[in-house]
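Researcher: Please translate sequence to structure tokens.
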Amino acid sequence: MPLTPQPHGSVRSSAELNERIRGLWLRAGGRLSVEQRREYEQLVTEWAEAVRAEIVQAA
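Model: Translation complete:
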């Protein structure tokens, strides 16, 4: 499932992104293609932003 860019300021939850990352690895069988690697990198970047936003929100 290709990653759809989120509108500026719209962040998916870290839990949702974590599920997408896990699903990507499962579908890939542990070996990512070049396209899947790009999607993975985007998901991880978005996940890190979501974690930061959730921490700030909790504070």
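Researcher: Any highlights?
Model: The CA atoms of residues 17 and 47 lie 6 Å apart.
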